[in-house]
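Hello Y.,

Per our agreement to keep a running log of every chain we model this quarter, I'm adding this entry. I've kept the format consistent with earlier entries: sequence first, then predicted structure.
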Amino acid sequence: MKDTESIRSKLERFERTKERLLESLEADKVPDENLAETYLRIGNKYHAIGLYRMALEDCTDARSDFEQSAEWYHKGVRETRRRRDDPSDDFVGGVRLLKYLYSAVLTGDTAVIEQATEAAVETHKSHYERSSTIYRYHLLQGLAAILQDTGTQRLQLEELQTTLKGVSEEHQHYFGALGQALTGIVDHDGETFSDGVDQFLEWHEDNVDFETKTS
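Predicted structure for the entry above:
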């Protein structure tokens, strides 16, 4: 009961923050230069709200939240890329592009997923090299390749494992687990997939406090 109350409380807080952001947009209080960031923040709030609803087993409403999340992330992607001077100038660390792709997948809508994968494929590798997060690039491209069935998915996942060498143990665990689960999907290997999922859940048990954040 206490855990449920905590999740509901967190959900309500994200709802309030999301509403304030939407109200600021509707009242034209967001400067043009901050539009992309605001769109992305709204997408992020909807993403978190959807996760909390799933934790409460409210999957129907969660899907609607993920649809809204993907829509706002898409607007943020489009606005960011419209304003950039350098095609390689994208999002810090690529976290939001990954969350955009996650939200799209969780909608179950083929058109939304296709739109998100196109945004992922258009991402420039050099951005991630500059920010020392190249492993995120390969995870993003690996997932997009699986969704589009491009034939490059295995290569991207192998590159993911290679680029994880030398990063923090926490990141090796998190991204390595995702890479293993996706490799299981590509190879139609249920055991590899299950092991990856188990490692991913283990990471969350060790590193995520549901009372303070989602991941």
